[in-house]
Amino acid sequence: MASAVAVRGKEEAGRRERRRIGAKGNFAAAMAVRDVDVDVAAIYPITPQVQIAEKITEYVANGELDAEVVPVEGEHSAMSVVVAAAATGARVFTATSSQGLEYMHEMLYIASGLRQPVVMALATRALSAPINIWNDYSDAFGMRDTGWIMIFSENVQEVYDNIIQAYRIAEHPDVLLPVVVTLDGYILSHTVEPLEPLGREEALRFAPKHPRGYRPVLDPDKPMTFGPVGVPAWYHEIKYQQVRAMRESRRVIEETGKLFGKLYGRSYGFIEEYRMDDAEVAMVSLGATASLVKAAVDRLRREGVKAGMVKIRVLRPFPVDELVKALENVEAVGTLNRAISYGGAFEDPLFMEVAASLASRGILKPMASFIHGMGGRDIFVREVMEMYKKLMEHAKAGRSARRTYFWGVKGHNPDDDQKD
Amino acid sequence: MTESTEPQGVERYLGKKYPRTWDEVPIAGIVPWPGNTEELPKHSWRTIRPVIDQEKCIRCRMCWVYCPDSAIVEVDKEYTNKKGRTFKVSYEVNYDHCKGCGICAFECPVNAIQMVPEER
Amino acid sequence: MPRVEIRFHGRGGQGAVTAAEVLAEAAIDEGKYAMAFPEYGAERRGAPVLAFTRIDEKPIYEREPILEPDIVVVLDSSLEPHIYMKGLKPSGLAVVNTVKTPEQLAEYIRNHGLNPPRCIATVNATEIATKHLGAPIVNTSMLGALVRASGVVKLDSIMEAVKDRFSDRPHIIEPNLRAIKEAYESTEVACL
Description:
Chain A is built from 13 helices and 15 strands. By secondary structure, chain A is α/β, with parallel strands linked by helices.
């Protein structure tokens, strides 16, 4: 985590600007928003994201950020406001969680369909019912087909870094797509960890604002119509443009992550490989859950097990080739996720993408998918180690799991998931 | 916010007015040419057309207010009716925009507008 | 320094979560890695609260609750020993807000049928906090006691972290610093 960022000693509202501070994920998100000098923010508060809204409002109130904060009556309006503001050329931000994301769901397609570079922070949280305010990825996975670029964060530093990068990616002339950056509810949003902020000057150097009008904008002096009817004769073509933009974003995401590493010592790719060099079994995971898997890998290595982990940082566009390259030499591949696709070919939506990636490149090997930690259920490192051991059984038997293993369910033996 | 100097290559997003392929369509299907509906022929939508009887018309402007397509136009044409009253303006129908909905005829308080079948 | 895992026990309103966070911020300020998080729930004043801090020289990946802490910090003297002693390593340390001496507390713990940890530190944080802050908000005093008993971070780092944390309420900084200092000086430590 060595960084080349110079200390920018600057008295801001009586607070010492330090090179390395302790901060919660929510504050890291708000600081990133302040540092990239967002013009318009509209956030409807929902647990566990509330502190992001509070902090941004505080920055505006005490003069640290010159932005228009629009108080809205719900998330549907929040997304409507930032889409419209982005259409005028503004740099915009919103944040939400769980039911709030569902409430703005139809507007998610409007943001991507209108090609507006909206950036959103999503404090991941379970969905009702039953009502639950704790972490899982049900909300995030529910938006995976809405046309947004999706970046998952593993720790508080990544929350900050990913939001800074999100602006460079979203507003890139070759992309013009909305980007969501996740932070695990509570596990990152409310956890204090080390954070090295870039500071405003450096953040704006990395993600500079383009001159207004580099992309089509709403301007009374040069009127254009945004959002007309897309008739059957041309809707199909407009959707294909979106597909191409998403494909094109791969190059921009990659360049952005590399440049970040070159400048600040923290490099980002589509995936992160952990102890994969000589790994025999690999678990694919994402978000802060990846930290737990790393801890399990470390302990398994001490026991002599050649375990490795691959973290998916970018869920959309899905990194098929990077993943295949990372996994082609292991004996067995597992996935650990905190989201359910009820009745899916496998109940783990992450597994389906990993399996499709490998199969499409002609690679068949034993695989198994694991779901644990729904609705904030703690996943313990020893449980992840047990999953690795189950995966090794599949490697030895040369057979994939027939269904997703549900781990940690009271009164349920995960092996029963394989029975007909 | 950084103020605009001049648009840098915004044209790449604007496509062609009459596209043939996917990459010629303006981004997100926006319409960069305001008012271009004017270029489309609309009169073919019509099966009946309003005809204003200038003699009956009292210049109350109700048709102009109610027309959903702004197809009633106020023109500087002086008109003196048989009773000897002189109006400084007249109302006419822009048949390029009129879609023949009949609202003007319905609203006219003196029945000065008749809807007559289109002859084609 | 190997990893240290600390569990804070308090009641809603005493500032256990803030204590865990300030401790992590102090450790981070010293260049260490740290992680502080509460037991997330529907927090309310008076309900038992848990908060956790991990401190290490290396990045920390264990995002799980601390079941076997090295140190427990007990902000509320009314909490029963079986609550805060749960999982505490036998080689560990209990820092307790109480009028008892460490020896008396060890006896008290034994009377509950439990084995006291190797080290016990006691401090009358309620009295100290009330004296300096005018209210029994004992979190900062308990940090002073924790630093005295464990040396897990430097006293100066705690002081700086408190100044940072309360920079938006400058009038409460000095009283808290005085409380930390007095707690630090008056903490009694006894190890078997």
